[in-house]
Structures are given as C-alpha cells and as structure tokens.
Amino acid sequence: MLERIRIVLIGTSHPGNIGGTARAMHNMGLSDLALVAPRCEPLTAETVSRASGADHIVHAARTAETLEQAVADCTLVVGASARSRTLPWPMITPRELGGRLAGELAGPGTRLALVFGREDSGLSNAELQRCHAHVHIPANPDFSSLNLATAVQVLAYECRLAWLDGLETSGESDAEPPQPLATHEELEHYFAHLERTLIAIGFHDPVMPRQLMARLRRLTLRSRPERMELNILRGILSATEKQASGETPADSGEPDPPA
Ligand code: SAH
User: Where are the domains of the chain?
Assistant: First the structure.
C-alpha cells in the first residue's frame, strides 16, 4: 500500500524542505517523490544534511513541469491546504485520509498523490481544483500553516498508521472497486472535452465562466468515476458535438451509450 502513495511537492523554494520531506517519507516507509517545477536546486548540501540518510529518495525523485504530468497515473489526488478557498471543495482530515486508504488502494492500478504547495503561497486555486479532495491539518487556527516538510510528516504518519492497522486486520479491503477508476490524465481529457462541447453548444461562455467548469469538476471528482463510466460520458459528448455540427452521432467512433 505505501508504495502506491506519491508525495508531490509543487514549486518548492528551499532545498532543506526537500531534504526534510525525504527524511519524513523514509521514516514512514514512503519512497515515491515527485517535484513539480522546483524553484531551487533540489539536491544541495542542505538537502543531504536535512535528509539525514534519506537522500536516495531525492536522487530517485521524478521532476515534472506541471502537476498534471506528476499525477497523470494517479486515481486519487488529494491536495494539502492550510486554508479554505472561495469555492468549497470536499475536505477531509488526515485521519479520514488514512481511513480511506485501504479501500482506495485495493483496486487494480490505483495510486494516491498527496500534493503540497509552495512555502510562500501554497497551492493555487487551479491546482486545488485538480484534486478530488483537500486535506487540512487541524492546527491552531491563529497559526495554521505548518512547515512544508512537517506537513508531509503528519500526513505520511497517518498513512503509516493506516497501513499498520491493515497489517493487524486482514490487510484486505472489501471496498475494492469492480472496475478500474479513471486516472487523473483520463479525467483531464474528459474535462477538456466537456468544456469544448459546452462551448460548441453555447452553454458555456469562456468570457463569462461563472466558475462553471470548477463546479463541474467538483461534481465529477466527487463521484469518483470508473474508466468505463468516463468513456460513456465521452461518448455522449462526442455524439453531442456531432449533433451540434450537423453530423450523425453514429459516426462518432466513441463507445456506445448505455442500453
Ligand atoms: N503560506 C501558505 C502555506 C505554505 S506551507 C499558504 O498560506 O497557503 C506549504 C505547504 O504545506 C502548503 O501548501 C500545504 O500543502 C502544506 N501545509 C501547511 N500547513 C498545512 C495544514 N495546516 N494543513 C494541510 N497542509 C498544510
């Protein structure tokens, strides 16, 4: 289970925090680190010093230019956020995150990304809206922003507790999904297709977006669609596009709608 958990750091500006993250991960048995557009040299003397023997995790880290690339293969993406945002998103506590892990990571091809933001400005709204849920560490409301590596430590610890719990019980979950869930990449293709179609039929005006796409993202992500279900939705979109352009839906080449 722990090997299916990826820690993603976006725009980190202090190498010490990358080293501290590697140490926190190795302490808790995690090893998959991704760095998105780091704003510092990731591997410095300070990184190695703060990693205290866990710098192999930084050596093995993948670097990506965008969040999408870093989490493309993930079936659950959870953003760690110190503050609430204008458009409320499903919010969980670290303990609830741990409680969901056994079920979430039981199915085929499942992978969790825990996404952490910049030291100075956290995660952007666009990044937060790419997550299924947000996790908030319920710290002192008057001083709620933890050091980046410390926030990683808290969530990694909850993951480890959940894993240890699973070892004590059967280790198996009865919540295994019957079908593979859609990955982040498949969801992003769907959202792009949905937006294109809504523009084509005159339902969505990108000049006056009124948070429509953010709300549709939230609705879709909340329902955790399976890959097959997303294919059906894309089939409907293709048929709609053809209809709008005067072609017959039968030409679409997309999966048939459900009987
Ligand atoms: N100044 C930023 C916070 C930066 S802390 C802000 O106000 O948004 C760096 C990162 O650590 C955050 O982006 C978040 O991913 C994580 N983090 C810090 N405190 C947290 C908390 N209380 N709950 C969840 N994540 C937290």
Answer: 2-170, 184-245
Residue of 21, 242, 23 lying closest to 148 (CA atoms): 21
Looking at domain 2-170, its CATH architecture is: 3-Layer(aba) Sandwich (3.40)
**Largest Cα span, the chain:** 64
What is 184-245's CATH number?
1.10.8.590
pLDDT tens digits, one per residue of 123-142: 999 999 999 999 999 999 99
Quick one: pLDDT at residue 176? 53
Quote the pTM value: 0.86
Question: Which amino acid belongs to residue 7?
Answer: I
Query: Which residue of 93, 97, 127, 145 sits with most ligand 1 atoms within 8 Å of its CB, as the best mutation to test the pocket?
Result: 145
Q: What distance in angstroms lies between residue 231's CA and the mean position of ligand 1's atoms?
A: 35
